[in-house]
Amino acid sequence: MTIMARKDALNVLGIALEDITPEITKQAYRQAAKKYHPDRNPAGTEMMQLCNAAYEVLKDFTGKVLRETLDSFKYGEKINEALNAIMGLNLKIEICGTWVWVSGDTKVHKEKLKAAKYVWSGKKACWYFRAEGYKARPHQSWSMGKIQEVYGSRRVQDEQRKIARCA
Which of 54, 59, 83, 92 has its CA 20 to 30 Å from the CA of residue 43? Predict the structure, then answer.
């Protein structure tokens, strides 16, 4: 189960409004579901699970004013682009909250990862992607285990690997 902050959930579904209703949330979810459906998108399975988690956070939210100012960008689209840029590279891809973590034999794919805006984390010995503008909360340096425990973790199944195994 992915734990997601309200601000992250709004950005995943592309909702940048001060006033939000369940109807707006449902409409945004439906649009995201069409856009990120696995039949249309190589990273669709992971994106749909991210959208489902965002919808669960927001489905009953009827607050009139958000305490935080929301940025106008959409996390969902940026995460989708980041995932699609590295699909098929035979790497271990993991989603924790709204961050994408990549490990495995990454050295040979270093330039592709950099081009897709992944950043190397020396302490965790893996690459990560977070949407531009994401405001990290100051805290102690967390281990991958702690991040997985707090935000949940889901391994991305590379569709191309699945197809190769079936052939």
Answer: 59
Whole-number Å distance between alpha carbons of 67 and 79: 24
Per residue in 120-156, pLDDT (tens digit) is 998 889 999 987 766 666 666 888 888 888 878 888 8
Beta-sheet pairing, 119-121 with 92-96: unpaired
Q: Which residues are within 8 A (CB) of 137 and not within 5 positions of it... i.e. 6 or more apart?
A: none
In a domain, 97, yes or no: yes
| Whole-prediction pTM | 0.59
Instruction: Provide the number of structural domains found in the chain.
Output: 1
Distances from the Cα of 126 to the Cα of 10, 46, 123, angstroms = 27, 19, 8
